[in-house]
Structure formats: C-alpha cells, structure tokens
Design brief:
Elements (H helix, E strand, L loop, with lengths): L4 H9 L4 E5 L5 E4 L2 E4 L8 H9 L4 H10 L1 E8 L3 E10 L2 E10 L23 E6 L6 H15 L3 E6 L12 E6 L7 H8 L6 E4 L5 H12 L3 E6 L4 H10 L6 H11 E11 L6 E9 L2 H8 L6 H7 L8 H10 L5 H7 L3 H4 L1
Parallel strand pairs: 7-11, 7-12, 8-9, 8-10, 10-11
Antiparallel strand pairs: 1-2, 1-6, 2-3, 4-5, 5-6, 12-13
Helix pairs in contact: 5-6, 6-8, 7-8, 8-9
Length: about 350
C-alpha cells in the first residue's frame, strides 16, 4: 500500500476538499475553504516528498513527469474515494495537489442546486457550460446533471476527461468514460470520434482552446448535447472568452454558432454555510432565448445581465439573486453573503 494513503485517508476523514503535499511544508488540508496543516506530521523534505509521490506513479507516468515537469492523473482508495492528482516541480522540489472526489455522486437536490437545472436533462442538443474558478464545484455540478440524465433518459453518453473524476454506472443510459492519455490521445480526437459513435450526450471535462470550442459548437449543431466547463467568472465573460479566443475573421461565425447552439450557462461560486461546517453553491443561471441570442449575434453581451434579471420566470437568476436567496433562507450569513457578491469586473 502506498505510504501516502494514510494522508489521503486523513483528508477523507476530515472531509477535506484538497490535500497539499509539497517540499518544505507540512501536509496541508483544505477544509471548507480554509487551510489547516497536519501539525503532527514533520515538515516534508525533498526526499520524503519524492518518496510519497513517485510511489503512486507508473513507469510511463514517471517518464512523462520527467519530460514535462508536471502531470495530471487520478488514483483511488477502494471504498473510500478517488483523488484527482496534479504533481509538479517547484522551487524547493516537487509538490502535489490531491482533489478528493467522493465515490457517491450527489443529486442536484442533495447539492441544494436550483430546481430549474433539472431542465438541462431534457435538452436534446446544444451546448451547456458550467463556469467558475478552480475549486468552485464545477465538476460536481456537471456530475449531478449527468446523473440526472442517466437516471431519466435512455441515452448513449460519452465523457472525455483528463483525468476521469466521478465514476458513473449505467442506469437508464449507457455511459462510457474515456481518459485523455489512457484511452485517447487528446480531447479533440476523442470528441471527433464521439460524433461517429451514435452518442446523445458528450461531457468534456474542460474546454480549453479554440479547437475544442469549435468542435463542441459543431457537435452541438449536429444534434448532440454537449456538457463542458470553463474556468471563467460570469456568464457574459464566458461568452466573450470563447469568441475572443478565435481570430477576428472567425469571430462573427462563432457568434452565430453560439447564438443558436448555446442552451445554458451556469456560473457558480461556493459560499460558507451558516448551519453546518461546509459550503453551498450560489449559481447564476442563463438560459438562451431570443433576446440573449440576439445580443450574442450583435456583440452586445454587456446587456445580458438585464435580461437575466428580468427573466426569472424562465429559470434565469443573477449571482446577486442566488446569494440573496441563500441569505433569505438562512443558509449563509450576511458577512459571507457580502464576500460572495460578484465584483463589477465579474458581471461586466
């Protein structure tokens, strides 16, 4: 058994979201957003850190790490949890971040996410994006949406991830999970293959570049429901990020594709709960309609916020409304509500 398993079990025991193992520091847990060092553990030397981390890598992974100075993969402690691992080189030696992925996929209700997100399970095609900074729960939300589809639809679902995070078992649907590196050479190759595999739904772990944006939009236009995530803040910023990633001569075409293919964008952040030691997601929700589509085509996305504010009956809500509602329900306190409110840069 790898020596680091004891630390990973400790992270699971204390319900940490992350474990940090790095040369020159004690192992550190992130618990409900805060950082707590494991004081009984000595400061990690270069040799001890390497012993912890090299032991969990295969020979191929070690070779890749030597060539690239960082690597992403996943490991599992049976009946405990999976962990998404990033190992990297830093000034003092090597380090790693372990993100805990629970074995059980929580439902949208268990996550206390807005009821209207269940609408997504009934979309037959189009592009659905979840956005937010790293650690905001995007993967957890996507897993819950995918599970909702799995429980309610007879679909063929393919996920393309780097690495595979949540493990989905077949329910009403058939789910096939592919990991970049282990099962396919790239997101792009797997996505192209997915279009030829009679799929209904394709989940892309993260959309990162113009090629993946372009392929996702094309797939959404050809009758597939595409679920993906982007590390952006704000629904408007997400659309602008996609458009601006393309050369200027292609941007009008991308606007047209987004205006017709985009179905929903969820921007989320985690806010500390008042009632328990945990965090809850506040979610801004945009559902595409004629008004939103028109603003995207005309490059007037700065006006979208007013549409979101006035279309609550269609299931839309701003981040301010989401946080205010959590405050009204007594789930968060006023101080944390104020800290969670978006800045002008995030909503502009």
């Amino acid at each position: 058994m790898p020596e680091i398993n004891k630390l990973l079990r400790t992270a699971h025991q204390y319900q940490a979201s992350d474990l940090y193992v790095t040369t020159g520091a004690r192992p550190i847990l992130r618990i409900h957003g805060g950082l707590i060092a494991i004081e009984e553990h000595p400061i990690l030397t270069r040799e001890k850190t390497e012993a912890y981390l090299l032991e969990i890598m295969s020979s191929d992974q070690k070779k890749y790490f030597e060539q690239n100075s960082d690597i992403d993969f996943a490991i599992e402690i049976k009946n405990i949890a999976r962990f998404r691992v990033n190992i990297f080189v830093q000034r003092k030696g090597i380090g790693a971040t372990f993100r805990l992925i629970p074995e059980k996929i929580k439902t949208l209700d268990e996550l206390e996410l807005p009821e209207q997100l269940k609408k997504i399970a009934h979309f037959k095609d189009g592009l659905v994006l979840t956005t937010g900074p790293a650690g905001s729960g995007k993967s957890t939300t996507l897993a819950a949406i995918l599970d909702e589809i799995n429980r309610t639809k007879q679909y063929h679902i393919v996920t393309i991830e780097d690495p595979i995070e949540f493990i989905h078992e077949n329910k009403k649907s058939i789910i096939e999970q592919r990991e970049v590196g282990a099962h396919t050479h790239s997101f792009h190759k797997a996505l192209r293959a997915g279009l030829r595999e009679d799929t209904n739904v394709i989940l892309i772990g993260e959309l990162r570049d113009p090629e993946s944006f372009s392929l996702a939009l094309s797939a959404a236009e050809t009758g597939h429901l595409i679920l993906g995530s982007i590390n952006t803040r704000g629904t408007e910023n997400t659309i602008n990020r996609i458009i601006d990633s393309f050369p200027s001569e292609q941007q009008n075409q991308i606007r047209m594709q987004l205006s017709t293919s985009m179905r929903a964008i969820m921007w989320q952040t985690l806010v500390k709960r008042k009632d328990t030691e945990g965090r809850v997601a506040a979610v801004e929700i945009l559902f595409n309609n004629k008004a939103i589509s028109n603003l995207i085509r005309k490059s007037q996305t700065h006006q979208m916020q007013s549409i979101i504010e006035t279309r609550q009956k269609e299931g839309m809500q701003t981040m301010e409304h989401a946080i205010s509602e959590l405050l009204r329900r007594g789930i968060i306190d006023e101080k944390d509500a104020m800290e969670g409110m978006p800045t002008e840069m995030e909503i502009a």
